[in-house]
Amino acid sequence: MDGEERGYWRWSKKDFFPEESFQSLASYRAALSQTCSRFKNRLVSRSDDENERFELRKQSEHEMKRCLTWWDLLWFGFGSVIGAGIFVLTGQEAHEQAGPAIVLSYVVSGFSAMLSVFCYTEFAVEIPVAGGSFAYLRIELGDFAAFITAGNILLESIVGTAAVARAWTSYFATLLNRSPNALRIKTDLTSPGFNLLDPIAVLVLAVAATLASISTRKTSLLNWIASAINTLVILFVIIAGFIHAKTSNLTPFLPYGPEGVFRAAAVVYFAYGGFDSIATMAEETKNPSRDIPIGLLGSMSIITVIYCLMALSLSMMQKYTEIDPNAAYSVAFQSVGMKWGKYLVALGALKGMTTVLLVGALGQARYVTHIARTHMIPPVFALVHPKTGTPINANLLVTIPSALIAFFSGLDVLASLLSISTLFIFTMMPIALLVRRYYVREVTPRADLLKLIICILIVVASSMATSAYWGMRLKGSWIGYTVTVPFWFLGTLGIVFFVPQQRTPKVWGVPLVPWIPCLSIATNIFLMGSLGTQAFVRFGVCTLVMLLYYFLLGLHATYDMAHQKIVPRS
Fold it and tell me: Transmembrane ranges (predicted)?
């Protein structure tokens, strides 16, 4: 094959834009003039399991190496999830939003995350490809929905990686017994929030990306070692915290009311992000149908328990009003006479953030690879290196912008944007699962499809109404919920009684469908509504930029790809 004779590193225009629409200015103008008809085509078109699993892989020219087992995935789960979130956000939200009830915030966000994990697991077992949620949505909801999700995946990858890298620098400074910003360079040339330059974060990202590009198997081994050390540190934090616990510190338990619990839950959800990286490794898993459910469900169940215990131990060690929002665990240990404990906490946080960056580099590159296979972004980023069996170009596409953002932007600027992007993706997944179970093209009667659409719209609308009513903060008024919550039940019951299930999972499936997917929709939308207005403004601006790219480039590239209007590479 021509593609096999060429080297990996390619920089010609046809490698980036091989589609017919971009071969000349005249052809591009012609493509733009057909934007409406092309958009209609991509809006209603759907991919299928076989295309995602086999045909699109040819775009990478080389296969990724199947080298992972359930043991690797279990530790990837720990490595991808336990990082800066639990150490940074727990103290911040306990002090400012939830008080000792921060443990309930972790229960709520953990419950919501687990519902999403169920949905991810069924898809990952049925469609074991590198694209994760992007591939699943292309099959069930079409190209446009998949693109909006793809944009948010890339946003989550780039911003999330930058946030963790910034936090890495802060904890490294703490380990050196210096202030969190001591290793950053202050400048007056940029506005507040962007005026502390972080070259160490850039270096850490470069090292993580390099390791992930060399070998998936070696990265897995390194992750296992680092995660094991981090687990020991976490066990110390929990045990030492309970040894020095005072039950009096739990009073009052709800100082900011139930509202504070849910506002904090929406923010600490950031601490559960990353588990979707496991689904992207399905192509490199030896036995996806067995290994993925163990890796995803097993790791997330244990992580939820660990988070709740860590939050409870902090709340019992120190009064919520005295918790330091910037270095909660370190200061808490100092308050009980264990000054050396802050170094161990800093080491544990560093280890955790290092594995988050390592596993994140693996998962994000695989997302990008599959998105590029569809030509939604230039196909050169779909290439798998013949020697390493890893997508190096895709890794660079995430790492370079992440490094630029990490160099300038503070963690507080990044966290809320990341949470809303993550929650949006996790809301789309259960909707896609409902479509997969209850709709099969050319089989499902039109009347049943219409019933399904109406029921899903009722579930989504009632969830949004519940979240909006909660956001109004009308103290003592529950009248709104007596309308919105029953509508959610009616929408779900409508699917149960009036829409026959068309597909049964071959190997592993989500139990209690449609209840679990509908509950996942409700909890994710509710948590989204608990975020501040600023997060939605930033999310809206980012979405507008994504749509601009889509209508100028992505739409025409994917249309040509679907209709095989690709100019052969020379």
Answer: 67-89, 101-123, 144-168, 196-214, 221-244, 264-282, 294-316, 343-363, 392-411, 417-440, 452-472, 478-500, 507-529, 535-555
